[in-house]
Amino acid sequence: MLNRRDFLRVVGIGSAGAxxxxxxxxxxxxNPARLIPYLIPPxxxxxxxxxxxxxxxxxxxxxxxxxxxxxxxxxKKIEGNPIHPISKGGLCARGQAGLQVLYNPGRIxxxxxxxxxxxxxxxxxxxxxxxxxxxxxxxxxxxxxxxxDGLYLLTSPISGHLKLLLKNFMNAxxxxxxxxxxxxxxxxxxxxxxxxxxxxxxxxxxxENTNLLLSFGADFLTTWISPVNYSYAYGHMxxxxxxxxxxxxxVEPRLSLTGANADEWVAVKPGxxxxxxxxxxxxxxxxxxxxxxxxxxxxAALERFTPRDVAKVTEVAEERIIGIAREFSKTKPSLxxxxxxxxxxENGVSNLVAINILNYLAGxxxxxxxxxxxxxxxxxxxxxxxxxxxxxxxKGKIKTLILYDTNPVFTTPGxxxxxxxxxxxxxxxxxxxxxxxTTLLSDLILPTHTYLEDWGDNFTExxxxxxxxxxxxxxxxxxxxxxxxxDIFIHLARNLAGVFQKEIPWTxxxxxxxxxxxxxxxxxxxxxxxxxxxxxxxxxxxxxxxGWWKEESQAGKKVYISxxxxxxxxPKGPASFxxxxxxxxxxxxxxxxxxxxDGRGANLPWLQELPDAMTSVVxxxxxxxxxxxxTTMGIKEGDVIEVESPFGKIYAPVCLYAGQRPDTIxxxxxxxxxxxxxxxxxxxxxxxxxxxxxxxxxxGAVSHNSTKVKITKTNSPGRLVKMAGWTKExxxxxxxxxxxxEFQVKEG
Length: 748
Fold this sequence. Notes:
The chain is an alpha/beta fold. Helix content is 30%, strand content 16%.
């Protein structure tokens, strides 16, 4: 029998795990010293009273400000920071699920060293001293042999002072091989904006103040760039201006959540979105809505893209193209944006350039409220095409690879064969919180803090027309025996004192971060926006507020776009797809799942249990297919089908979805993990296995909409788990009926 003392002990040590949705037995037993009741609590802990810590969410790259509710040392709830310019008090499901990142039983709890064959998952726990010594010795020997440039560092896209620390470390060590990689990235958009507007940063799309939004495949309510901020903006555009309701036109082959909330859906043929944009541009110029002196040059550059000709290719009616062009030109202000769908074709940059020029031709809606507001230029991206990295691996150029917060084995098209190439590298070190497909191939694993346990900062990109810096501070003490990635590199630098010319004065990343912000304060303390008289006061206000930003006018200078400069970047025709039309009759559209993104959220049961907004499917991969087309092929909902491309095949159940073109099937990205904890492993299939490795030639960004497929019905058993559409009561007598005759008798 469980006595009162044991009950209180279990509740006291297990409530944090239970609150995150995990069984208590799955967490490590705590140190007995932690079981002492709070008779004399620490100064910042009052039993029963919550503390709220401002920080930044790291579940995606949007940089939303958050506040974390902590009671008695345990994180209980995460909400949006109400004064933060990005989140404005809002937070998406991924952000809410941050607690399950912190208390996940699948976290790596101690440093590990491989003892078996690479990839077999045979590791031995070691101490931090042993792990850091192994890596330090390897780096010193590498440098002594004159092979310092054989050290490669691959991370997810990060910003702030952590990025600066890593960059400085690599430069001081003598390696130029610091790169970032992420499947769902915005390299094509940055490149296109630089060509069109002359800026290297993502702009602020002022959705909240526009009157007509023309969106080409930008699912900004769920996954595109900054969905929390854009959801707020969308609500303001629709309902926040009395007497004025903005209009949304969504152009995409598959109806997304954003499309479902639009006024019009244009079901364009896959790969022709850029041509549709050029036809709209042609009509704007030909119809006299563009008033520039170079009107004749624009007309000549666009003469091949008349609405009549483009209508045949895009399968969008000529009258509708003309109508959109006229409405977009007459409505002030209007805004055209291009999302991940159009960006992920092989000609993604060209499509985005075509969409960008609509904002110029329809009235130069750049630098004005309700249009495109440029942000300040940022440092050039360190993005690397992952195939370039694998080529270096196959040539033996990579001697030591350090990985942080990236999983290229899972997020790279199967045709690249990343796993096989990584095995050519002598030493792979993973700085990871979880055992994913890439970490499994490592020789040394040094587990890192989650963002709720760590120091850091984030320089938001894109911002909201002015710079926004958000501070990340530990809300709780580390749950397991992990370290900050910044601490790891500072420790390495101190161990390699003979390599670095200057002594490293900091012992931990928190001190480095604070010293860096002190330099910022000393440089800008005379600004009128900084009212604090001492750095200590400034730092405390940073932590309590959650960051620093200077609200300023969002108006900017108008731009001039040279038709001669732009013309070489315009689409020449539809995007190309691998696979013969006869043998592979369906276009394949892949899109990031609203909960899992590129697969990083698949190990969180809250997100697995969250129904997809458009299909209500949970816990698996599904294939969206037009109901009428499915009927002609004898396919019913829930049937398992084989999807085959020229490069691979997968199996998954069909979900009949009316928001799907008949010639297209769609599959969400994010499931199909082989290793990533029990909530992710063995669930669904990874649709990236169907893809060739095709990239945009200008940026190297992966083109994940680049192949056609064929489908075959199988007799394999499968299960499509949906939260909607269930018609059986299972004996619960939920819906009760009565005949008219019985009703009359009862009333009589």
